[in-house]
Design a protein that fits this description.
Blueprint lengths: L5 E3 L5 H8 L5 E3 L5 H5 L4 H7 L7 E5 L4 E4 L16 E5 L7 H4 L13 E9 L13 E6 L3 E7 L23 E6 L4 E4 L5 E7 L1 E8 L4 H14 L23 H15 L2 H10 L20 H10 L3 E2 L6 E5 L9 E5 L2 E5 L1 H11 L13 H9 L4 E2 L5
Parallel strand pairs: 1-2
Antiparallel strand pairs: 2-10, 3-4, 3-5, 5-6, 6-12, 7-10, 7-12, 8-9, 8-11, 13-17, 14-15, 15-16
Helix pairs in contact: 5-7, 8-10
Length: about 400
């Protein structure tokens, strides 16, 4: 199949997405996002205000010299004379600061939400952009206000050459590929390693929804910390089974195999399943407020009482759930839920409730059963809101 960008009539189903496009081929969908949802996304002036906060990760890029400044910014940084040169403002993790923008994530249920990194929002004036570049992650580019022109490479980049001396990794040569103009509500999918370059034709907002996989080194390091921190059996290696081949400075083939088996045993244990659920819910935000426990924690009894006065609960769109089936001979039907790097063991009744919450629609009080231990714990770590209270 050709890697050329294809224009679809609608966002693909999950089956079609993974079979035809994921990691393989870019696509564009016109008017993919409902107009009412688009109208509630963060506005340029709100984005500028967010970039002035200490907890926001923001950058200002000038196309005059490709200089990059980091926030927090002040009002003077957005003075009228900035329009004399093309520039771009980029703010990370907007989904964790602006709930209506986070609702955009619900459109992409066919994508692996557990790999979702963040929603980055960029505003640029006419002529603005950040140059041709290559990302190591999947991205859906949702066009807000304005018009942008994108050029997307026809195959994954190899041996790319960047401009020297810049803070940004900008390709030295123009991107060669397919060129499209996008307007409000259009969605462009760009797989990893496909070079792309956007140019703003009129003042524009772009919502970049990134899906980023971890590096193996990060996973190994974090899993080791998990084994140490959780008190899971972590016996020191004693060299059982050594023979004369391991004398002196020689690490015998048998010893290498034994050490490899030791690591394999750890990875194949239930501890690995539970760790995965926590690992993929780590936040990249500077603001840890949404991952810390609520100041006013509720006991299961207090939660049940509060639930009677509410219309139900809902999971905020920005909260990442990771559901991992438990392994082992006695774990059939059991799952581990990860939320904000916390893990919860689920029985069948708990799983049924979590599946309702994962739909990210209001769940009425009478649809939650008596899972108050689980629900109060989720509420206390900001993973649930009461309907009619702080939703």
């Amino acid at each position: 199949m050709s890697d050329h960008l294809v224009i679809l009539d609608a966002l693909p189903s999950a089956a079609d997405f993974y079979a035809r496009y994921w990691n393989r081929r870019p696509f564009l969908v016109r008017d993919a996002i409902d107009a009412d949802l688009m109208a509630r996304l963060i506005a340029p002036e709100e984005l500028a205000a967010l970039s002035m906060e200490e907890t926001a990760r923001a950058r200002l890029v000038s196309q005059a010299d490709w200089s990059c400044r980091f926030g927090p910014f002040a009002e003077d940084d957005f003075s009228a004379d900035k329009d004399d040169v093309p520039w771009s403002l980029l703010v990370q993790n907007v989904d964790q600061f602006h709930p209506e923008t986070a609702n955009l994530l619900r459109v992409f249920g066919f994508a692996p939400r557990w790999l979702m990194d963040d929603i980055m929002v960029s505003f640029s004036n006419a002529g603005g952009g950040i140059g041709g570049h290559v990302d190591n992650y999947h991205v859906f580019l949702v066009q807000g206000q304005g018009i942008r022109r994108w050029t997307v490479g026809r195959e994954p980049a190899a041996d790319e050459i960047y401009i020297n001396g810049l803070d940004l990794k900008i390709l030295k040569d123009p991107v060669e590929g397919d060129t499209v103009e996008v307007g409000r509500g259009d969605v462009l999918y760009v797989p990893p390693r496909f070079a792309h370059e956007g140019t703003t034709l009129e003042d524009a907002l772009t919502f970049s929804i990134g899906f980023l996989g971890p590096q193996l080194s990060d996973m190994l390091e974090d899993f080791g910390l998990h084994l140490s921190d959780t008190g899971i059996k972590d016996d020191r290696y004693t060299g059982a089974g050594f023979d004369a081949d391991s004398a002196g400075f020689v690490l015998s083939a048998g010893a290498v195999g034994a050490l490899r088996d030791r690591l394999r045993h750890a990875v194949e244990s239930p501890a690995f399943d539970a760790w995965l659920a926590a690992f993929f819910t780590a936040s990249t935000s500077v603001d840890a407020g949404h991952t810390a426990d609520r100041e006013e924690r509720l006991s299961p009894t207090e939660f049940a009482t509060a639930l009677q006065a509410a219309n139900g609960v809902i999971k905020p769109a920005f909260v990442k759930f990771v559901l991992v089936p438990s392994s082992g001979p006695s774990s059939e039907g059991a799952y581990t839920l990860g939320v904000n790097q916390r893990i919860f063991a689920l029985d069948r009744d708990g799983l049924a409730v979590v599946l309702k919450l994962m739909a990210e629609e209001p769940v009425p009080s009478d649809g939650l059963g008596d899972q108050f231990d689980l629900l109060s714990a989720l509420y206390n770590c900001h993973a649930l809101n009461f309907i009619g209270a702080d939703d």
